[in-house]
Backbone:
């Protein structure tokens, strides 16, 4: 399935995979109505899209607006929306449950990946961290990039405790290698930082292209999606 953070309205949506029975037959007619490429031209056009609340592969809408949090089938929620929470960081753990970080309200929500129920709500305001990008390491630790807060947050779900690691530059994209290293790109800042995920210390910080996305291949090389240049760089 796919989880999408809608940062402009304060909601998170789960989209199921039709081929893996990721659907909900809400009208109980035995047919699964979902947006499809009906004419076989390789594109799901606007005319082939179903309206909100009618596509039965869109499974949950989770509201992460403080004081009105809740889980709904798409189309059931009738309240208001707000861009204030700004859900931006999303990570899925080994249980297929989901961590959602809200940039504007400085919280991490833990959501049941099957039912959409909000299981926990952690206030990280005291850290000064604004979640922007998130991932889970092999030890189950949640790492969160904070964009212009110039730091990375390390959150231990076993204890709901967190610490901040100051980088001195924007923290944007993140990627893990197989040797317990977390690589953090600098967004518009020209830096790449490597963090040891076992002890949470910075190994080094080096000049790099201003980059957003980060991924690490099996050979340990780091690939950056450059912020404005329209290129990628391999380190």
Residues:
């Amino acid at each position: 399935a796919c989880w999408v953070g809608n940062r402009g309205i304060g909601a998170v949506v789960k989209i199921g995979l039709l081929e893996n029975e990721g659907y909900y037959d809400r009208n109980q007619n035995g047919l699964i109505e979902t947006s499809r490429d009906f004419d076989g031209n390789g594109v799901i056009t606007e005319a082939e899209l179903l309206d909100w609340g009618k596509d039965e592969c869109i499974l949950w809408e989770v509201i992460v607006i403080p004081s009105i949090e809740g889980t709904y089938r798409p189309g059931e929620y009738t309240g208001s929306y707000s861009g204030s929470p700004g859900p931006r960081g999303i990570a899925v753990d080994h249980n297929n449950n989901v961590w959602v970080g809200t940039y504007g309200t400085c919280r991490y929500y833990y959501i049941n990946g099957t039912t959409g129920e909000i299981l926990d709500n952690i206030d990280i305001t005291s850290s000064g961290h604004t979640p922007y990008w998130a991932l889970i390491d092999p030890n189950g630790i949640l790492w969160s990039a904070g964009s212009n807060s110039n730091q990375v947050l390390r959150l231990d779900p076993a204890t709901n405790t967190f610490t901040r690691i100051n980088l001195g530059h924007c923290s944007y994209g993140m990627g893990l290698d197989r040797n317990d290293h977390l690589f953090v790109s600098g967004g518009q800042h020209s830096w790449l930082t490597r963090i040891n995920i076992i002890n949470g210390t910075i190994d080094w910080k080096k000049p790099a292209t201003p980059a957003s996305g980060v991924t690490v291949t099996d050979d340990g090389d780091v690939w950056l999606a450059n912020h404005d240049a329209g290129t990628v760089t391999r380190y």
Summary: The chain has a mean pLDDT of 95. The chain has no helices and 19 strands. The two ends are 32 Å apart (CA to CA). The first strand starts at residue 2 and ends at 6.
